[in-house]
Amino acid sequence: MAPKRSRHDGSSRQHSAVDAGKEALCTSLNDAVNASVEKAFEAIELEDQKHEEERARLFAQAQTAAAKVKSDAAIEVDEMRRKVQEERAALEEDKAAMEKTHSFQKNKILLNVGGHRFETSLQTLTSVPATYFASLFSGRYELDLDAEGTYSIDRDGSHFRHILNFLRNAGSFELSSDMPVGQREELAVELKFYSLLDRMLPYYDQEQVGQALLRRACLAGTKQGLQTAVAQACELVFEIGSTTPFLTEEFQDLRFVITDRTVNGSPVWAASSEVSELFMYRAMNGATGNMVIGDARCVESGDLGFVRNRNRTGNTGAAPTNLSQDEWVSRASATLPPEFAAADRKSPNSSWAYVPNMCINVVHGLRDGDPIMVAARHQLATLA
Q1: How confident is the model at residue 86 (pLDDT cuts 50, 70, 90)?
Q2: Residues 6+ positions from 163 with CB-CB distance below 8 Å
């Protein structure tokens, strides 16, 4: 006979099943809560990230806006500064003009130049240093005035107005090209007296040389001689040099002015550098010659100098700009910087090297309207 189960055992098993169900339910609920909480935190983190990105975007926009405001403010400040500077400059200009007017009234000078009366100021007369007037009013001399307070200068006053206008506008004054040759020569005499010739007519002496060349060519009457003289008279002052730094500083960017000296029937141009005085002249090589740059020793000895053009000039010489630009050669040992020591040579063992990019620019020549130039060209036209 089987043992009889008690009611207590059944109740225990029932409680155990309930407890297990409760535990499973609690675990499930806990997992669900944890999952919800985790999702909630993820959502919060995502939202925080969005807010951070938005804050970064807004901060960048604020920085851009601030930079634009700063830039606009800087532009406005610069504009205000510029206007202030312009106004200050205008005030200074007005002040200077008023001071000049006051100074003129205070230092008015009356001049009697050969019977011609002029009224000017001490500032105008002494505006250019190392002149007759700068010396006259230096305070070293006792000056006599007539009863009207006028200074008398015993010189020709017919052209003195040009001198006075130059002193008033030394930086921009230009003498009219229509002035007749005779009057120009008279003015030059006066300019020499006042020590102003080199300032008012800086190339007057060279123009005299050009005119002399044309006169001689007109007397000779040959077509080649006239052509050469006209070309040379148009190139009284010129600058020569290589547009690349091929030559040493002594031979680079030289300004030559024509002189009244001739060598081998051709004019000599002179240039002064910081190192020495150089000349361009015609050196004979057999029956013809080459235009050469050398020093005084080279001129006297007829040497081919330091720089020369390989074109032969014929029997009458040549104008510098008529020489071929790609035919200049230089004595390498004397004229080339070290970096050009291996330059293209005239021949493999030659001491002469080709000078690249050599050019001549005319600075001053006899004007087309000069009567002697007109006469020479007219005579040349009849020989065509």
Answers
A1: confident
A2: 190, 191, 194, 196, 200
Do the strands 108-113 and 116-121 form a parallel or antiparallel pair, or are they unpaired? antiparallel
pLDDT tens per residue, range 265-297: 899 999 976 667 999 999 887 656 889 999 999
The owner of tokens 């009356």 is 110
Strand order in the sheet with 116-121: 116-121, 108-113, 150-153
Query: Which positions ≥6 away from 70 have C-beta within 8 Å?
Result: none
Q: Are the C-beta atoms of 221 and 380 separated by less than 8 Å?
A: no
In whole angstroms, what is the distance from residue 230 CA to residue 248 CA? 32
User: Which ranges of the chain does DSSP label H, i.e. alpha helix?
Assistant: 7-106, 122-125, 132-136, 160-168, 181-193, 197-200, 204-220, 223-233, 296-301, 332-335, 371-382
How does strand 150-153 pair with strand 108-113?
parallel
152 forms beta bridges with 112
Identify the CATH number of the domain defined by range 108-202: 3.30.710.10
What is the enclosing helix (H) or strand (E) of 151? strand 150-153
Tens of pLDDT along 242-263? 888 888 888 888 999 999 999 9
Q: What digits encode the pLDDT tens for the residues 178-192? A: 888 889 999 999 999
CB 314 within 8 A of CB 301: no
Mean pLDDT for the chain overall: 84
Are the CB atoms for 156 and 112 separated by under 8 Å?
Answer: no
Per-residue pLDDT reduced to its tens digit, 162-181: 999 999 987 788 888 788 88
Q: What is the pLDDT of residue 3?
A: 55
Q: Is the pLDDT of residue 6 over 60?
A: no
What pLDDT, on a 0 to 100 scale, did the predictor assign at position 105? 44
Residue 217 is given by DSSP the state H
What are the structural domain ranges in the chain? 108-202, 235-364
To 5 degrees, how large is the angle CA 165–CA 197–CA 263? 150
CA atoms within 13 A on the CB side of 234: 19
Distance CA 52, CA 54 (A): 5
